[in-house]
Amino acid sequence: MNLSDPKTFLAIKDLSLAARTIVDGFMTGLNKSSIKGPGLEFSQYRSYQPGDDLRWLDWKMYGRSDRYYIRESEVETNISVRLLIDASGSMAHQDGEYKKIDYARYLAAALAYLANSQGDATGLYVFQEGGLFNLASRQDFQHLNRLFFHLESIKVKGEFTKPVNYKDIYTGSRKKELLIFITDLYQKKSEIIDLLDTLTALKNEVIVFHLMGRNELELDFKGYSVLEDLETGETVKIDAASSRKQYQEALSAHLSSLRTEMLDRHVHYRMISMDESPDQALRDFLNQRNKLRA
């Protein structure tokens, strides 16, 4: 099994099994890395070495991966993890064999599985046209399976959720939450940035995973000369060969502006290309986040 290829994970139709496979790959690659901070929180897992105190073996991790891990430090946390999924029409953008929403649901499932394994409550918001789906945060495997079901049921269409539907955000749990937003950051005006302002105003820690297709990054659409906006239906003609340099310069400026906007709002940001393995994306991000928090 080639775990460096995202197609490996997306070919697994059972979302629970895919999540476990991603997390097992993440944990295997983690080894001596140290991840700290509220939500998804632990001090260190490492491989068992002869002479280690057997009291610190993590038997649940053994049951999932058939490998022995020592959990070096237990850290208590009562911060729930809330996954936010952009289900607007632009998330139907396809690169190769799969769409952004496919990558989003598998990445979210892995994060939920990891959080639940750490003892964190997990919840879900799905931002879809005409409303906001809300699954309250809980910590047990029955709830985790319910969350997987709702991830599998997501249908993308239309524009991003309008602020009038945000009432559940304001009336939810009073506990501080770690909010992980998986989105392509496509917005007509500033609706997603405005949402981030709302989320950070509630004193939650916010992480944004920004999904982009490799074909978007390189303006490589395999001979197509007309592109369609998946939310508005508007079309534009392109000549990729003559426009690529100008496009990539504009994209670079756009991404730089996004990073600045995230930094200004104290939002953790990472752009993920969909040809990147989910477990590697997760590992790189958590290591980066740990360095920032050190």
UniProtKB/TrEMBL annotation:
<dbReference type="InterPro" id="IPR036465">
    <property type="entry name" value="vWFA_dom_sf"/>
</dbReference>
<dbReference type="Pfam" id="PF01882">
    <property type="entry name" value="DUF58"/>
</dbReference>
<dbReference type="InterPro" id="IPR002881">
    <property type="entry name" value="DUF58"/>
</dbReference>
<protein>
    <recommendedName>
        <fullName>DUF58 domain-containing protein</fullName>
    </recommendedName>
</protein>
<feature type="domain" description="DUF58">
    <location>
        <begin position="44"/>
        <end position="254"/>
    </location>
</feature>
